[in-house]
From TrEMBL:
Any GO BP annotation: cell morphogenesis
Function, as annotated: Cell division inhibitor that blocks the formation of polar Z ring septums. Rapidly oscillates between the poles of the cell to destabilize FtsZ filaments that have formed before they mature into polar Z rings. Prevents FtsZ polymerization.
Record's protein name: Probable septum site-determining protein MinC
Gene transcribed to yield this protein: minC
One Pfam family this sequence matches: MinC_N
Keyword Cell division found: yes
Assembly and binders: Interacts with MinD and FtsZ.
Domain of life of the organism encoding this protein: Bacteria
Keywords assigned by UniProt, alphabetized: Cell cycle, Cell division, Septation
Keyword match Cytoplasm: no
Length: 220
């Protein structure tokens, strides 16, 4: 058995907050509202800030403090337009992150579809790395199903479903009965209270369209 540290690449699900302007207070108020809506899900959740659309000067120190006060863990900043911005973010304690430079036409190695035959109980998490996930039963409240590809749920989705966890924007979520606590594709998520009643308790397919989740009721 080796007793030396080892450094390996891995992937994790991170929420990305896209800032619209340089007003820190607005961003913090937004995070606090989200935390109040789903405290169990967002407690100590890691978060990345995308500041690509920010035009004015950002107070990175105040931003970091506010994120912690809202109950999140600030991880990094992406979308810095120049070295000065990167330096300010780094000095405030943020990791400076950049988008992957992997060519868009380079196909990802996909794993075989992961199939779960039994219900996913509260507190359980199922993850399909580099592939799709099929749940042949129900997903209970407090349970979480994650896939780097698409997610198909043949029963009722009452917990959380996170598709495209590694950034695959073409991922889909299809479920026979939508009663989810949270649904997410490629970092874009909606909580239960954001889902229109016409889709609730119906067979639905979710996709990503222009940085927003698109819901489509299925009749077959």
């Amino acid at each position: 058995m080796s007793h030396t540290p080892d450094l390996k690449g891995s992937s994790f699900t991170l929420s990305v907050l896209h800032l619209a302007d340089h007003h820190v207070a607005n961003a913090i108020d937004f995070l606090k509202q989200k935390a109040d809506q789903a405290p169990a899900f967002f407690a100590n959740a890691p978060i990345v800030l995308n500041i690509n659309k920010v035009g004015g000067e950002l107070d990175f120190h105040a931003l970091k403090q506010g994120i912690r006060e809202a109950g999140f863990v600030p991880v990094g900043i992406t979308g810095c337009k120049d070295k000065r911005c990167q330096r300010q973010a780094f000095e405030a304690g943020f990791a400076v992150m950049t988008a992957s430079n992997t060519p868009a036409n380079a196909p990802a190695a996909m794993a075989p579809t992961k199939v779960i035959h039994t219900p996913v109980r509260s507190g359980q998490q199922v993850y399909a790395k580099d592939g799709d996930l099929v749940i042949l039963s129900h997903v209970s409240p407090g349970a979480e199903v994650i896939a780097d590809g698409s997610i198909h749920i043949h029963g009722t989705l009452r917990g959380r479903a996170i598709a495209g966890a590694s950034g695959q924007r073409e991922a889909k979520i299809i479920c026979n009965d939508l009663q989810a606590e949270l649904v997410s594709i490629a970092g874009n998520y909606w909580l239960s209270d954001q889902i229109d009643s016409q889709f609730w308790q119906n067979k639905v397919m979710l996709s990503l369209n222009d940085e927003s989740l698109h819901f489509e009721k299925l009749t077959i």
